[in-house]
Write a structure and sequence with these properties.
Structural class: mainly beta
Number of strands: 21
Strand order of the largest sheet: 1-4-7-10-13-16-19
Shape: globular
Helix content: under 10%
Radius of gyration: 16 Å
């Protein structure tokens, strides 16, 4: 398992490529990176994946900014999934201007035993839940701290989409510690 530290990179991405991928990483950090849609009239596809981490353990994904182009059916902002992961700290990231595809999300987390999702900003997202933590197919129930995240999601009012969905996660704090705009959006907790 490699130790990886990806810090303060600036990148423009498109054509369904990934900004940063970290697979089977241990004790690793993805911090302070700026990933945005490539600005080119020659590019046919401005959709991209921001950060993806798969089967990693003790990961920190912090202080990153991911800015889409509002291209229709854009891809994941940050996805951290693991079959055997222990700890994930996903904090103080910004994901904005993404018109998501039917199975993609600004933030998606599953498979970790302990998760901190704190201080993230989700802005101007269309056609998607903002954040799903956990998965009904997971064999373990994890523990999550989900606090001080802010959501500015005017496009979700009156739709089936929600800011936060928790699945098979025991919440270790009051989920109302998150800021929702518009204020009539609701957080959904489900244990499947």
């Amino acid at each position: 398992f490699p130790y990886v530290k990806m810090k303060e990179n600036q990148m423009s991405v498109g054509n369904l490529h990934k900004g940063i991928s970290c697979h089977h990483c241990r004790d690793s950090e993805i911090d302070g990176n700026n990933i945005k849609a490539i600005a080119s009239d020659l590019l046919l596809d401005r959709r991209f994946y921001g950060i993806q981490s798969t089967n990693s353990s003790n990961m920190k994904i912090t202080n990153n900014t991911i800015v889409g182009s509002n291209a229709h059916e854009d891809k994941m902002g940050i996805a951290a999934t693991s079959e055997t992961g222990t700890d994930l700290n996903l904090s103080f990231n910004t994901v904005k201007n993404k018109d998501m595809g039917p199975v993609d999300l600004p933030i998606y987390v599953r498979g970790y035993k302990s998760v901190i999702v704190e201080g993230n900003k989700i802005e101007n997202i269309k056609n998607s839940h903002a954040m799903i933590i956990g998965n009904c197919a997971d064999t373990q129930i994890g523990e999550a701290i989900v606090r001080n995240n802010s959501f500015n999601l005017p496009n979700l009012v009156g739709t089936i989409f929600k800011p936060i969905i928790l699945r098979k996660m025991l919440l270790k704090n009051n989920v109302k510690e998150n800021t929702l705009l518009p204020t009539d959006l609701q957080i959904v907790e489900t244990q499947c």
